[in-house]
Amino acid sequence: MADKLALQMRRRSRLRYQLKIKSGGRPRLSVFRSGRHIYAQVIDDAQGRTLAAASTLEKELREELKTGADKDAAVVVGKRVAERALAAGVTAVVFDRGPYLYHGRVKALADAAREGGLSF
Length: 120
Description:
One of its GO terms (biological process) is translation. By secondary structure, the chain is an alpha+beta fold. The protein has a single domain (2-115), classed as Nucleotidyltransferase, domain 5 (2-Layer Sandwich), CATH 3.30.420.100. Helices cover 47% and strands 19% of the residues. The longest helix is centred in the N-terminal third of the chain and has 21 residues, at 2-22. 27% of the residues are buried. The mean pLDDT is 91.
């Protein structure tokens, strides 16, 4: 188990380092997924604050979806975080997938955020 977590930490730090180099001052769209929920937030690392966030824990989403963390939920969270980021004045972000592969729920969230108006 410790080896698996160590590998996750290495992947996360490797990706974060590359994003820091290539971001060009843009905020990052960070994704976290658990077994039950999926979370997304737009973070401005220069100021150290969250500009927009959405997750399946929100009451309206839980009532609307009736499920936890499937692809449909990821699509709804992606659209919601994109609309909140646009309201905060953010149009371009870098996508921080963390230690997760760009596949399944993570890809669905990213595609929905692109459809919602974010560019990355």
